[in-house]
Write a structure and sequence with these properties.
By secondary structure, the protein is an all-alpha fold. It has 4 helices and no strands.
Length: 112
């Protein structure tokens, strides 16, 4: 396992932007969610768990800022207290939240 020490939220987002580099990809994620299969690079637990392991601090920080500590606890409990499912749900939540931001930024910049 490759551990990326000192990674930031921006690093995690940059990696996602390399995988999903088309605004239509981001819109599909925003509109349909990761569970629909539109996150072609983050479908399987092996993919999402690796991303979580590489960017754990950044993902947890971002999600906690968005939904609070209680929301993160709820995500874990909704995961059946299973760590692999929790990591998957955290990454999918992260990607979905980032997709909203990416689409909003794009539309502010490029659409009248």
């Amino acid at each position: 396992m490759e551990l990326l020490l000192g990674t930031t939220v921006e690093d995690a987002i940059d990696e996602l932007k390399q995988e999903y580099n088309d605004i239509d990809d981001w819109r599909d994620i925003r509109d349909h969610g990761c569970s629909s299969g539109v996150c072609h690079s983050h479908i399987y637990y092996s993919d999402t768990n690796k991303f979580f392991d590489n960017y754990e601090e950044a993902v947890v920080e971002y999600i906690t800022d968005a939904i609070g500590d209680d929301g993160v606890v709820d995500l874990f409990q909704c995961s059946g207290n299973d760590i692999s499912t929790y990591k998957n749900n955290m990454v999918w939540s992260f990607i979905e939240m980032v997709s909203q931001s990416v689409v909003e930024d794009y539309e502010e910049e490029y659409l009248p």
